[in-house]
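Example record for the data management plan.
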Amino acid sequence: MVQKVAAKLSYGWRLFATAISFFSFGVGGLLLWIAVFPLLSLLPGNSRQKISRGQKTVSYSFYFFIGLMHRLGVMTYDIDGLEKLNRPGQLIIANHPTLVDIVFLISRIKQASCIVKAGLFHNPFMRGPILNAGYISNGDPEQMIADCVAWLRSGGSMIIFPEGTRSIPGQPYHFQRGAAAIALQANAIVTPVTLTCTPSTLTKAERWYQIPERRFHLTMHVGDDIQLHEFTRISPKSVAVRRFTHYQQDYFTQQRELYQHDGK
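Corresponding structural encoding:
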């Protein structure tokens, strides 16, 4: 009886804490837009320096958000291989199991761009961070690829989810070709990051308030760089892109099976 009451109290607190966390995220994004970024824009510097400041600001704010969720007892996490990140011209490709994946990644990468849905440019809670950090819209696929390639070639780093959206639990991965096309055109450093969430939560099929019976644990494993030379010498380029896309898909499928086996 006591255990059941304790479990219900714990669940109730985590539901309340989850609400606090996402409310804070929305308010924080709005405050960045109307208060922080206007002040940062007054500082001297060219457009690249302003974008750099914007990305660092978003990274720090996301670091605070993850810390808040951790301190409130919503989640725990661990990171393996962080030292392999934060390199110029680096393309980070990752699987996408939960809603907070991009937040978690950016919280650990001080300066990185990413691809965002075109509709978010009009979201008052996200507009400020997106514009000031120089994030790239997916509205025009060809322009998106060109912008990503230019950013990587200039020495910037990027985070891309090759799936293009959150994974569906229990379903095979279906990667899009954009990440492969960007990597091969830019001849970038490509570093895979495997994210796992136990128990599964904040998936594409769940609302934020549909929390698991216990706090979730997010693991980030940074793999070794993927060598592109065996793909860059393939002709035509469309075949190289297709093969590299299949390679990524197979890699993350193997990683998921490995972690599922280890978790049993």
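Summary line stored alongside the record: The chain has one domain: 2-263.
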